[in-house]
Design brief:
By secondary structure, this protein is α/β, with parallel strands linked by helices. The chain has a single domain, classed as 2,3-Dihydroxybiphenyl 1,2-Dioxygenase, domain 1. The chain has 5 helices and 7 strands; from the N terminus they run ααβαββββαββα. The protein has a 7-stranded mixed beta sheet. Strand 2 and strand 3 form a beta hairpin. The longest helix has 14 residues. The model has no long low-confidence stretch (mean pLDDT 92).
Length: 173
């Protein structure tokens, strides 16, 4: 029998409540942005393989691709995570990078915006966005760390990026 999502990754709504509370504390309003996906980090390759296996009955594996020297799987859930007025279908599951230590658990969310990413940085000069990914050709991003969590902004949904990767044929899946 398949496990419940909350048994595999913890309770996503508690994670989202905590993260949205942190955003409210700094008055960062993300109401106008689509919450595209959540990310679950693992400590080891064996845990990555286990979580990938446990998630398989709950959704379609859209892709497993090599990104920055490690595998990342993306699942599209058959039943979305529902948080307030949002439905989140995608879960990103990265294997750990060598030389990095991660705590297992839900770690970040990613939002899609139509605004140029530079405009978000300009709109919120009081925040220390990491902008090293702002000029990537595919899936450019900016990141804001909030304690043990972080949020990212992109101009394309992860599902659209995956479709592009598959069309380009240069990723392992």
């Amino acid at each position: 029998m398949a496990k419940l999502l909350s048994e595999i990754i913890g309770e996503p709504c508690l994670f989202l409540e905590d993260l949205f509370s942190k955003m409210a504390d700094i008055e960062l309003n993300v109401d106008q942005y689509e919450l595209d996906h959540i990310c679950y980090r693992v400590q080891s390759l064996s845990e990555y393989k286990l979580k990938k296996e446990e998630l398989a009955p709950l959704g379609e594996l859209l892709i497993e691709s090599m990104v920055n020297g490690r595998l990342i799987s993306t699942f599209k859930l058959y039943e979305p995570i529902v948080y307030k007025n949002r439905k989140i279908y995608l879960i990103e599951l990265p294997s750990p990078k060598s030389q990095h230590s991660y705590t297992s658990g839900l770690e970040h969310v990613e939002f899609v915006t139509k605004l140029p990413l530079e405009k978000i940085v300009e709109k919120y000069p009081q925040y220390s966005f990491e902008v090293f990914g702002i000029h990537k050709k595919i899936n450019a991003d900016i990141t804001l760390k909030l304690g043990e969590y972080c949020i990212r902004f992109h101009n394309s949904s992860l599902e659209d990026v995956i479709k592009l990767e598959k069309k380009m044929g240069n990723k392992k899946y």
